[in-house]
Each structure stands twice: as structure tokens, then as C-alpha cells.
């Protein structure tokens, strides 16, 4: 519910990677497990493409907004919140989000039967943070002038956010529209234009969600820990969803690059090095043929590869022959042109 979402390819796609280690005793019975996660798709929290959804948990909460214990969350339909309506596909056919929330809460209760609890109190606190993220996305930031912005007094969504996370309205409305700059000798408070303030608001939402996700994983691991001595283990690597579209976003490019690196690491240790040991020890073995993706990795990360060239182009000032004015190339725009050429 908290790590999976609907994409154009899959109604229940895992939007993070994980490595799970399952421990066994000397009689090969499962005694515990541990999970490490990476590459959580934080951008999905604040934006979804057409026909996609944010993480399932947000829709489950909105579908259960009328439950008495959720009254103070001030939630309503998923279509009422920016962070859940951008994909224009808030419902998955055949899925009852309100019922799914019951399943999610039951999963937390199962963990609560161990010595490390995600009990009812923790769950309500967790749902308050999730609801606060939805409200934060609906906070409208307006132009004060070309270089500064403001949030109107008594914005109901910011009020709800502040009440749910326990901060003051005055502080939040100020710091969403300003940034602090420190030099060796002085500290400056700089106002932000509306676009930068909106980006800062979304960055805060993503950061809160990532921290919440890590907290849940930490508690799951504590619930699965064992005092029994581990004799052996099985490691399972579940890489991030690899998708290729007609036009890939820069984020998708980075995801796919990370997957290529993971796959190469796997190939190196499981195929290359292991088979070399077999050959040295003259163990009868049928060599496994596999695709070596190192040339693809080199294209991306080698000297003067894609990442180097992107980094260089984002720093270099160019001249517009047409208008005779100087400008800086935006990384996303340059990346699209570069990929098209490649």
C-alpha cells in the first residue's frame, strides 16, 4: 500500500527496490528476515502521469474518510487533492480502496503482535502524516511580486497540515515562501518566487513521505528480528520496475541506469567470478551464457559519457544566434535533445 502504485503497465507496480534476506536455523527453518530498500520513487508523491495513481495508501485513506477515527484528518474524495488527481485515474477496476485499507491496517496489527508494535496509536499517527501530505499539496502559493510569493491567511489546507503535524501556521506560511542563506559571517532570509516556493513545497512533501517509508521499513525489520543463531540465509533482490517508454523522463533514465548497474553487479559475482572459480578448481560445469551490459553502462558513466556531457552542458552558457541573447540550457530540455540524437 505504501510502496506500490498503479502505472500504465501494472495496476500494482512496486515503485521501490529492495533486498530481502531470509534467515534459517541449522534445521533450515525460517527464523527471521531483514529488508533493505532503495530508490523509492518520491516524485510520484507529487506528480503522476496520465492513467497512473499515487501510492495506494492515499486512495485508501480518501475512500475511508468518513470513518469516525479519521474525522480529524479532514479528508474527502481523491479528486479533491492535487497529489491524487493528476493521473485522472483515481479508481482501479475491481479494487475497493476502503476494503484495502482494512487489509493494510490488519497487516500492521499482525506486526503489533510481536514485541515491536505498530499499534493503533502508531497507525493513527502514520495516517495523520499521510493526510498532512495531501493537504500540503493543496496549499496555494501566490505571487507577491516577481521575486517573492505568499500564502493567504487562514488557508484551510495549510491549517489542516499544521494541526496534523504540530507546527505553527505562521512558521509554515513564512518558510514555504522563504529560504535561509548562510555565509561565513552573516545569515540572510531570501524570499522565493512562486515557482520556487511551489517546488519547495513539493520537495517537503516528498521528504516527509520518504522518512515515513523508512520508519515503516525499520519497524518491519524490528518485528522480524530473531535471537536464534542464523545458520544460513537466502538473499532475494527485487529491483526497481524497469520501464521503457517512447520518451523516457530523466528520472526513468536514472532508474534504468541504476538497474543496469545492479544487474552488472549480479552478473559479476554470480556468473563471471563464480564460473572462473569453477574453472580454476576444474569442477565440471556448463558455462552459462549471459548478456554483458557493460557497454551500455560505459555509454552512460564513462568519461565523456551521457552524464558527463549533461553535467557539462548544464554549466556552459550558450549564445542564441537568433536573438543575440545569452541563456542557460535547462537540463531536461537538453537531455531530451541529446537522447534523440543518440
TrEMBL record:
Name of encoding gene: MYO5A_1
Highest taxon of source: Eukaryota
PANTHER family with a match to the protein in the record: MYOSIN, UNCONVENTIONAL MYOSIN-VA
Name of the protein in question: Unconventional myosin-Va
Keyword Protein transport applies: no
InterPro entries linked to this entry: Kinesin_motor_dom_sf, Myosin_head_motor_dom-like, P-loop_NTPase
Keyword Hydrolase assigned: no
Family classification: Belongs to the TRAFAC class myosin-kinesin ATPase superfamily. Myosin family.
Any single Pfam family the record assigns to this protein: Myosin_head
SMART domains: MYSc
Domain Myosin motor: 1-342
Source organism of this protein record: Goodea atripinnis
Amino acid at each position: 500500500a505504501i510502496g506500490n502504485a498503479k502505472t500504465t503497465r501494472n495496476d500494482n507496480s512496486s515503485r521501490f527496490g529492495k533486498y530481502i534476506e531470509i534467515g534459517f536455523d541449522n534445521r533450515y527453518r525460517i527464523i527471521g528476515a531483514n529488508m533493505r530498500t532503495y530508490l523509492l520513487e518520491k516524485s510520484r508523491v507529487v506528480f503522476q502521469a496520465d492513467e497512473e495513481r499515487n501510492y495506494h495508501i492515499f486512495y485508501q485513506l480518501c475512500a475511508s474518510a468518513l470513518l469516525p477515527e479519521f474525522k480529524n484528518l479532514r479528508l474527502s474524495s481523491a479528486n479533491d487533492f492535487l497529489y491524487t488527481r493528476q493521473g485522472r485515474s483515481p479508481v482501479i477496476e475491481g479494487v475497493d480502496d476502503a476494503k484495502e485499507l482494512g487489509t493494510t491496517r490488519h497487516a500492521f496489527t499482525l506486526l503489533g503482535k510481536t514485541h515491536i508494535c505498530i499499534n493503533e496509536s502508531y497507525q493513527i499517527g502514520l495516517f495523520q502524516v499521510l493526510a498532512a501530505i495531501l493537504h500540503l499539496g493543496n496549499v496555494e502559493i501566490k505571487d507577491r511580486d516577481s521575486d517573492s510569493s505568499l500564502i493567504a491567511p487562514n488557508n484551510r489546507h495549510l491549517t489542516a497540515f499544521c494541526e496534523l503535524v504540530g507546527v505553527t501556521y505562521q512558521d509554515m506560511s513564512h518558510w514555504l515562501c522563504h529560504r535561509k542563506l548562510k555565509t561565513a559571517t552573516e545569515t540572510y532570509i531570501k524570499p522565493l518566487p512562486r515557482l520556487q516556493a511551489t517546488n519547495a513545497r513539493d520537495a517537503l512533501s516528498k521528504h516527509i513521505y520518504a522518512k515515513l517509508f523508512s520508519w515503516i521499513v525499520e519497524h518491519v525489520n524490528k518485528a522480524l528480528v530473531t535471537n536464534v543463531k542464523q545458520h544460513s540465509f537466502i538473499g532475494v533482490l527485487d529491483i526497481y520496475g524497469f520501464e521503457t517508454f517512447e520518451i523516457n523522463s530523466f528520472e526513468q533514465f536514472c532508474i534504468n541506469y541504476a538497474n543496469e548497474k545492479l544487474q552488472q553487479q549480479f552478473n559479476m559475482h554470480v556468473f563471471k567470478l563464480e564460473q572462473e572459480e569453477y574453472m580454476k578448481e576444474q569442477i565440471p560445469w556448463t558455462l552459462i551464457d549471459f548478456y554483458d551490459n557493460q557497454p551500455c553502462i560505459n555509454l552512460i558513466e564513462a568519461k565523456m559519457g551521457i552524464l558527463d556531457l549533461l553535467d557539462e552542458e548544464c554549466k556552459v552558457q550558450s549564445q542564441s544566434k537568433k536573438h543575440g541573447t545569452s541563456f542557460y540550457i535547462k537540463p531536461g530540455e537538453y537531455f531530451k535533445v541529446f537522447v534523440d540524437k543518440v
